[in-house]
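User: DUF2163 domain-containing protein. Structure?
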Amino acid sequence: MSMSDDMRAHLSGGITTLCRCWALTRKDGVQLGFTDHDGDLSFEGIVFRADTGLTALALQQGTGLSVDNTEAMGALSDASISEADIAVGRYDGAEVRCWLVNWAIVAMRVLQFRGTIGELRRSGGAFEAELLGLTDLLNRPQGRVFQKPCSAVLGDGSCRMDLDAPGYRTEAVVTRVDGTRIGLDGVAGFDSGWFQRGVLEALGGAAAGLRGVIKADVVGVDGREITLWSGLGADLALGDTVRLTAGCDKRMETCRFKFDNLLNFQGFPDIPGNDWTVAVPASATATGGSRR
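Assistant: Predicted structure:
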């Protein structure tokens, strides 16, 4: 935490005009501002609203690699944070910044906390969010896993596959919705099963920005039908546009023939299986120590 001389003098003056402001940035780019002051404030291009009822518990900060954390609580409302948006995961992993601000002179402020939203709970028209500091990233597992299937996520920095290349992504129009089964129109030139294990992303409507993993991809007499492993959390409507991304089953053959990306394959296809690792020397005849 870096503090200016003006802010330090204000804090030591005995009478202060302080409040806290939070900026929340979701992964889809939506940015919200909140403050516990009794009036709206604005800085860094963000309007911090005072009518949200958002409050925070004591901030825990430490030296070294200990994880900074706090919790924020607030009321659910359609104007700011809605229960529907929480339910579909729009706030999962959102970035949070917290300032201590002199509300009389907003330029006099200090950034106290920066991190992400962890566990988020909701009940009775209110929510409670766990806020995790930047050092929480050090708790994530690192390193390679020795296994036959590829350990990369299709299109990530290890895979390096360009999914925007022709043949791996396409847009379609929803023609039928039956739970997790979705009928599509406008998907031509792709074999049945091409998008299995891939991703469906809604581009418009109530589910815009939400993604689901594809369980099955079948081309039948009535057109193409996609089945998701679970619902998107918001309803798709007839006429909504979705984007389909090809799926990968992590096998070397798929990497080579479907994606032509064998040089970046992150698995170990020749690693011995479990049967080999537990095998012991054996002989069909008795071993009495002689040459025979």
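Residues 19 and 274 are 60 Å apart (CA to CA). The mean pLDDT is 83.
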